């Protein structure tokens, strides 16, 4: 492992300055992904800045009625929060569906969306990877593609984003509070992550030295009727093949509002705007759910692979969307 | 690059200087001679290195020692009260909840931390009603212990052991 300095500031401005002034520096949160990358040689920073004391570990109430979740809140503490459990089942379920109890006690709400792809070619420094080593090529194309993208991929990168939490935050239109050397700004959560295009080395729209200080959740009363459904190769402690975060609001026999985001299918949490458009104002019928899912996946481009490829994901994603909507409207359909 | 830290491990205070690259697991095993937490995968996938850090179960292989100065660490070897094993340790013995034993210190620490989480009302992926107090079914135990792998597959005995311990710890 390459030697690095370690700073543990108690102030966010200082943490930002330490990283912004040093191109070789990186923020360290819970460390569940980055420390592993230090061992694997995937990440080789010369300086680490621990931000777990520099950002808030509290959940506070915003004037509009939504909570502000400090970046240093541990995933486990978030799932224990009674208000979050009552008001945002899809978010709490997304966190509970990820990793293990030990990892959730370490990982932070601010760091979780910034974890990097689990593409095995990205994590194996002996194979080419445009995300790890821009211009080196993509080892995943034509390789094992079971966990890779069916939406929004490019010739340069077919990796998927591994976070469950990020899928739920995309569905509810959370807001990311970011501190940089020039001050604070906010980013709609759906604009935090990017598609790979020709720059897959950039997972997000954050600049070097920009620090997530908190995630703001909108009041969004409809989130009480929501869920996170994750399909994986084993019952627990595995990344998603496909996941769906969904919330729905019914008015009489019509869907008045709906939020859907998909995980495991793209380089970013995939907000299903097309499916939502089909569903808004419609009756909650099984065939409408199927039409909505088909609309969202119309542009899906499954990959070939030595493992048989990932063509199954298009069907799986459609069925998971339908199943999630069915669960959410149980009793409301006749 | 070195960092000077203090740690309390199983009730004993230590001051040590570590390379910033040193994990808590390596500090415990190689510097302090506490070989109770095991190095299984060293990548956060197996749970053999599980310890209690300020009372919470964590993976010592993914914690940089220099980031937890001042912390209180409990390993499986620090759980007993004198010659009396911790109820979770006793239950593992009663139920033969291991074969080779390599994963056991991690399993035991994880179970102790997990039972505290249940007592505090934390839900899990297996919890149907997120707003209700969780009840520790076998499905709940399996889910909550999913981060501890046992290559001997002693799970069928680990789950009842934890059920027994849960009754005693409560």
From TrEMBL, chain A:
Protein name (record): Xanthine dehydrogenase YagS FAD-binding subunit
Record's keyword terms, sorted: Oxidoreductase
Pfam family, one: FAD_binding_5
InterPro entries with a match to the protein in the record: CO_DH_flav_C, CO_DH_flav_C_dom_sf, Diverse_Substr_Oxidored, FAD-bd_PCMH, FAD-bd_PCMH-like_sf, FAD-bd_PCMH_sub1, FAD-bd_PCMH_sub2, Mopterin_DH_FAD-bd
Enzyme class: oxidoreductase
GO molecular function per UniProt: FAD binding; xanthine dehydrogenase activity
Domain of life the protein comes from: Bacteria
Span of domain FAD-binding PCMH-type: 1-222
EC numbers, comma separated: 1.17.1.4
From TrEMBL, chain B:
Domain of life: Bacteria
Keywords: 2Fe-2S, Iron, Iron-sulfur, Metal-binding, Oxidoreductase
UniProt organism field: Actinophytocola algeriensis
Pathway given in the UniProt record: Alkaloid degradation; nicotine degradation
InterPro entries, per the entry: 2Fe-2S-bd, 2Fe-2S-bd_dom_sf, 2Fe-2S_ferredoxin-like_sf, 2Fe-2S_ferredoxin-type, 2Fe2S_fd_BS, Aldehyde_Oxdr_Iron-Sulfur, Beta-grasp_dom_sf
Coiled coil residues, start to end: none
Protein name in the entry: Xanthine dehydrogenase YagT iron-sulfur-binding subunit
Stretches assigned to the 2Fe-2S ferredoxin-type domain: 3-79
Gene Ontology MF terms: 2 iron, 2 sulfur cluster binding; metal ion binding; oxidoreductase activity, acting on the aldehyde or oxo group of donors
